[in-house]
From TrEMBL:
The keyword Transferase applies. This is Guanylate kinase. Keywords: ATP-binding, Cytoplasm, Kinase, Nucleotide-binding, Transferase. Essential for recycling GMP and indirectly, cGMP. Signal peptide: none annotated.
Amino acid sequence: MIEQKGILFILSGPSGVGKGTVRKALFEKDTSLQYSISMTTRDKRPGEVEGVDYFYRTKEEFEEMINKGQLLEYAKYVNNYYGTPRQYVEETLEQGKDVFLEIEVQGALQVRENFPEGVFIFLCPPSLDELKNRIINRGTETEQSVMNRLRAAKDEIELMDAYDYVVVNDYIDNAVDKIQAIVASEHCKRERVASEYKKLLEVTQL
């Protein structure tokens, strides 16, 4: 029996495109995916659990991991570090589970450098006008903030060449179906199946 390693899938795209919404809908339909647990230096909040919500580390521990190359990506927000621990991802993949990482574009580019065998999916809006409407409908942004986000989104969309797949988030169900198709397709890729099949042949007595 062929036993494949899991695959790291990275979903990324500009702010406001609906990454979180699509990821949530995907996980409601596909329970086989393992959501990537991030690491942080921020304090644990009431009700949060180590290894479920986050892996909690001190600033010194986190910076030591940065220096040792033990993070696939990291960033700093409001004096706290956030990042993706390499060991957790690799151990989960070895168990044959697919890991799903939802992340901003700059973080995805870091992962591409550190873990190029991952599968990178760029989620983009149907148009910049639609993205503008989605950001405005949040009701949390000033006019200047909306324009800044749109400029950033334009720059990020120009980076889609760094990705393996592009999914247009026109309707959530359509986007989820396409991502599920990508997951299935990646598991059927010849290079993934062939390497495992050859191992099986080596131990088969004929």
